[in-house]
Amino acid sequence: MKNIVCFGEVLWDMLPTGKKLGGAPLNVALRAQSLGMESNIISAIGNDSIGQEILEELKTYGINKSHIQVSKKFGTSEVLVHLDSNGSASYDIKMPCAWDDIEHQEEDAKTVAQSDAFIHGSLAARSKTTLSTLLQLLNQARFKVFDVNLRPPHYNLKTLLKLMNHADLIKFNDDEIFEICKEMGLEKSSLEECVQFIAEHTQTKQICVTLGGNGAVLYIGTDFFYNKGYKVKVADTVGAGDSFLATIISELLNETPPQRAINSACAIGALVASKNGANPKVTQEEIEKIML
Questions:
Q1: CA–CA separation, 160 vs 192, rounded Å?
Q2: Is residue 177 a contact partner of residue 149, using CB atoms and an 8 Å limit?
Q3: Closest CA to 47 of 24, 75, 25
Q4: What pLDDT shows up at residue 180?
Q5: 223 φ, ψ to 5°?
Q6: Which of 283, 267, 178, 275 is nearest to 231 (CA)?
Q7: What is the pLDDT of residues 132-191, one digit of tens each?
Q8: 84, 94, 126, 227: most buried, per Cβ within 10 A?
Q9: Could you give the CA distance from residue 216 to residue 229 in angstroms, rounded to a whole number?
C-alpha cells in the first residue's frame, strides 16, 4: 500500500447548507484514503470545541490524526464559502488561525521521510511559522507535490517560486497558471506554452492543470495527455480539484499509464462536483459509469 502525507489546513467549510469538513490538504488525504492509500495529515486545530469536532469526524474516515497539533495561540479555522449560480465557490479565509501555527516536530519529519509522496498547497505558506515548518519537511520528502491554491490576498510570487522549485509535480487550475506565468514575464501564451515555461523554469517534470468542466491536461517529461471532462450537473465545486489531485497521485504512484490516470482523476473530480461538500462518497460503479 502506498502512503502519503498531506500538509496544511484543516477547517470547517461554512456552506449555505451547513458546515462541512474541509481544507485542501485534508480533502486530498481523505480522498486518497478512500482510494486505498494510507494517508497522514500534518496540521493544527485550536484548543476549542470545533477543533474537537474535527477530530471526532476524522474517526469516521479511519485516518491517522496523530500529526494534528493543538495550537496554543489560535483557534480552529472556519471558512465562509460563497457559491455563485453555477455552484462555483469563493472563500472568505480568516487569519490567523490554528494552521498558521504548525510547528516542526521530529515525528512528523520521520513520517514524511518514509512516505511515497508529500503533498502541500500554497495557502498554508502565508504564515512565517507554518512556512518554516513546510520548508524543513520538504527537505525530508522523496516525492514532493505542490498544489497551487491562489486565494487572494494569501500568497506572493516569491514564495510560490520557492515552492515550485522544490516540487516534483505541480498542480494548477488554468487561471492560476496563466496568472503566475504573467507575473513571471510570459504573456499571451497558450496553455501548453505556459506548462513548458513552468517546467523549464522550475525543473519540474510533471505538471497537471485542471480546466473546470473542460477536463484537464497532464504533462510528464515532454508529453501531454488530455481529458475533455465529464458532463455533470454541478452541485458545488468545493473539493473537486482536491479529489482530482488525490486520484492522479494515487494512479501515478501505482504506475497507471498517464492517460488512464488523468481520465480517472477527471471522472472523480466531476463526480465530487456533482455532490454537496468536499468529501462526498464516490462509488466504483459511479466512476465506471461516467467513464463509459
A1: 20
A2: no
A3: 75
A4: 97
A5: -110, 140
A6: 267
A7: 999 999 999 999 999 999 999 999 999 999 999 999 999 999 999 999 999 999 988 899
A8: 227
A9: 7
Cell of 163: 515552492
Find out whether the peptide bond into 153 is cis, omega within 30 degrees of 0. yes
Helix axes 258-273, 240-253, angle to 10 degrees: 150
Kindly list the distances between the CA atom of residue 137 and the CA atoms of 126, 142, 184, 224, 285, in Å, as whole numbers in the listed order.
Answer: 16, 10, 26, 30, 38
The predicted structure's pLDDT at residue 86: 78
The reported pLDDT for the residue numbered 108 is 98
b/e map of 113-129 (b: 16 or more CB within 10 Å)?
A: eebbbbbbbbbbbbbeb
Residue 90: strand pairing partners:
82
- Give the separation between CA 190 and CA 231, rounded to whole angstroms: 24
**What is the CB neighbour count within 10 angstroms for residue 228?**
11
Name residue 11's beta-bridge partners. 22, 77
Q: How would you classify the pairing of strands 38-46 and 3-7? A: parallel
Q: What is the pLDDT of residue 209?
A: 98
In this structure, the strands spanning 117-121 and 18-22 are unpaired
